[in-house]
């Protein structure tokens, strides 16, 4: 991605982690906690997303994920523009309901 054409958007992470043994469940739980501590929001059980305001910020979070992924883990990350995110459909059970997409926080936490 060309950093000069970067637009505000979301970094979405989907993952598969084994959870058959107690040790695997702990590693999966620790990874989920890592994502939450790193500013991600749970979208679905194994799908998390966080807003990114710069290309460097996205790269920082991808680097952190690479360091935190459990050895047995499989992760897919994708960048979604704000416009694409806002056009997402969210449908829940029966009767089908639509919910608005998650909003970008008014104040981005920087550290």
TrEMBL record:
InterPro entries named among the record's database cross-references: CRISPR_associated_Cas2, Virulence_VapD/CRISPR_Cas2
EC assignment: 3.1.-.-
Residues bound to Mg(2+): 16
Gene3D superfamilies: 3.30.70.240
Required cofactor names: Mg(2+)
Record's keyword terms, sorted: Antiviral defense, Endonuclease, Hydrolase, Magnesium, Metal-binding, Nuclease
A Pfam family of this chain: CRISPR_Cas2
Quaternary organization: Homodimer, forms a heterotetramer with a Cas1 homodimer.
Family according to the record: Belongs to the CRISPR-associated endoribonuclease Cas2 protein family.
Name of the molecule in the record: CRISPR-associated endoribonuclease Cas2
Organism name: Luteolibacter ambystomatis
């Amino acid at each position: 991605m060309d950093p000069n054409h970067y637009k505000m958007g979301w970094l979405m992470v989907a993952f598969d982690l084994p959870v058959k043994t107690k040790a695997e469940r702990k590693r999966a739980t620790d990874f989920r906690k890592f994502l939450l501590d790193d500013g991600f929001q749970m979208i679905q059980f194994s799908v998390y997303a966080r807003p990114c305001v710069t290309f460097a910020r996205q790269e920082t979070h991808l680097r952190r994920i690479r360091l935190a992924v459990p050895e047995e883990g499989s992760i897919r990350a994708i960048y979604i523009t704000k416009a694409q995110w806002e056009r997402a459909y969210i449908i829940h059970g029966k009767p089908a309901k639509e919910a608005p997409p998650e909003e970008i926080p008014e104040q981005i936490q920087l550290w």
